[in-house]
Amino acid sequence: MAYLDESPDYCTYDPVHQIPGTHGRECLPNSTEEANCSELCCNRGSRVLLREVQEKCHCQFHWCCRVECQTCIRTEEYHVCN
């Protein structure tokens, strides 16, 4: 079997084939899954960014059948491909 066309490079942006590339994609630095930074970023490395996340906290149960929570904001690190 012979292929006449080259396989597209999924690592870089290619508007002709509508491939977005992996630049700026979020990755998991310590994962053994497909989303790990080394594989997903095509060995170009990644950088650490910070984001604020809202989540429910200090929840209290009120008798009967009602839960009230506050909204807390925490800062978390995440990694994106270079």
Explain this structure:
By secondary structure, the protein is mostly beta strands. The protein has a domain at 26-81: 2-Layer Sandwich (Endo-n-acetylneuraminidase fold). The chain is 5% helix and 43% strand. The protein contains one helix and three strands, in the order βαββ. The chain has one helix spanning 37-40, and strands at 26-27, 46-62, 66-81. Strands 1-3-2 form a three-stranded antiparallel sheet. A hairpin with a 3-residue loop joins β2 and β3. The two termini are 36 Å apart.
Question: How confident overall, as mean pLDDT?
Answer: 90
- Our estimate of the beta-strand percent is 35-45%
Q: Say how many strands there are.
A: 3
Oligomer: single chain
Question: Helical percent range?
Answer: under 10%
SS-based structural class?
mainly beta
CATH architecture of the domain at 26-81: 2-Layer Sandwich
